[in-house]
Amino acid sequence: MTLRLRAGFPFPPDLAYGPVIGIVAHDATIASAQSIHPLMSTARLSHVLRIGLSIAFAALFAEFPRHSAIAAETRPASHAITNEPLFFSGDSKTAATANLLRAPSQAPHLTSADGAIVFEAGRDFVWQPGSRALTLTVDSHIPFKTTAELHPPANSPNAYRHQRGSEAWMFFGPGRVMHDLQCLADYSSDEEWQAPPVVTAPDSQLGALRARLRSRQPVRFVMLGDSISTGADASAISGVAPLQPGYPDLVARGLEQRFGGKVALTNLSVSGMDSNWGLTRMEDVIADKPDLVLIAFGMNDASGRRSPEEFSRITREMAASVRTALPECAVLLVSSMTANSEWVHAAPDLYPKYADALAKLAGPGIAFANATERWTAIEGRKKHMDLSGNGLNHPNDYGHRLYAEVILSVIGRPL
Asked: Which pTM value belongs to this model?
């Protein structure tokens, strides 16, 4: 285990995300990079630049990468993955495992979530060539949770009621509690797994917005959603390195980086709210005279068992209210991540149905970003706790980047 310092990042800490946040120039040196991130160690900068610069330029001139929050392609058969989160758990320490999204070509480079600690292959974790699984050693310094700790007795600290089909509660770790239990992996992989592609919306849906963006006119962007859309449990909200903001800010910054114009974000999202509440906020949305409105509900609707038909009707009314009052305003409907399926308030049956309902609402001036599909595909190869910011129903930094990537892919790129 090696201690080190890592700077807070004003943008997502992933050079594989270059087209969204800009990249370090090709002639950047360790010294000039440290002028940007003065607290980052020379070893870490060398590692990041070595991986990041090898992929950045191919991505810069290409269509927005299909899964750049997950991996950016360095060549047709190789992928460089950075800042992939891992949460180790098992019945005991030496049975605690975590899965990478792809099988690495060599032992991955692991750090704590804030980048302050480097974990050592062989001492802190074991990896077998050809495998996606990592296992802790008896002397490991990597944090972990036992299966029992993830399902504690009622009224335990950092717990929330309750596990489906059980009297046990669920581990609940908002803010830096969950953040400090996760670590980050950097590695290269030749495995050909691909995330579901995200299709750029046609001009019939977002043409007016794209014209404004491409002409570098200022864009007013209103976000309306629940706690996920407030940026909940992103590291910037939790006040811990790397200080990445939530996905609405990533989208605003990504559009500025991509198109070069100013994007002003007004976030009207409120924790605990659902689509029916959103319908009551239309006057506030319209009063801002936005050029782009993102509507992102579903998590709390599903926990309340709202039917897909009712969810669709309410969302249709919200979109119609905006389009009637502001015909030139683009509306982008965003489907939700899934909650921890072990939680009694999760609704695994409803999330894909909500996504299907939102997809059917797309039309003139209205587009759809399917975060549900991307989230589900990744979670199917990892654990919910790898992607979670609180253990139940919020994304971590990686999850917020996933949302932003899907949304920016739907909006598209300059000509």
From this structure: 0.86
